[in-house]
Amino acid sequence: MAADMNLVLKVLELIFGLIAWALLASVHGFWAWGGQHWVMFVLVTCWVVTLLLLILNKAGVFSNDTVDVIYAVLAALCYITAAIVQCVNADRHNYWHGHHWGWGNPVFDRHAASAAFAVFTCILYIIDAVMTFKGKGKQILPK
């Protein structure tokens, strides 16, 4: 069974984005420090737009490589800013009253993991943009 690269990338973007979103949501609320709302906005908005573009593309309703490249670049830029904010917030939660928690602090661990998945998702969007720009997004993967 063969799958096109565009589908594989979009599904991975959705999966990694959802994991980053879930990790952030698990510490959102009392632990929401500066920028957390921006990160949540990026994660949710990019996830919904990616899902809509995927559905419209696969249904044959809308398919435009220019829109896909522009969206992938914008999503990658937003994701990298979100990852930076997550790294800063993870570092904030690593210290409490001068005490270094290190690994094992659940708030720090979730912020760090969310930042890592945001970086992975950003990389996927960059790959998606480059492959679509070069016209290889429709390339069939080997079996």
Let me know the number of strands: 2
Radius of gyration: 17 Å
Largest sheet strand order? 1-2
Helix vs. strand class: mainly alpha
List keywords for this structure.
transmembrane helix, 4 helices, mainly alpha, 143 residues
Describe the structure.
It is a single chain. This protein has 143 residues and is an all-alpha fold. The protein has one domain. It is 71% helix and 3% strand. It has four helices and two strands. Strands 1-2 form a two-stranded antiparallel sheet. Helix 1 runs antiparallel to helix 2 and helix 1 packs antiparallel against helix 4. The longest helix has 28 residues.
Quick gist of this model?
Helices cover 71% and strands 3% of the residues. It is built from four helices and two strands.
Summarize the SSE layout with pairings.
Blueprint: H1 5-25, H2 36-59, H3 65-92, E1 95-96, E2 99-100, H4 106-133
Antiparallel strand pairs: 1-2
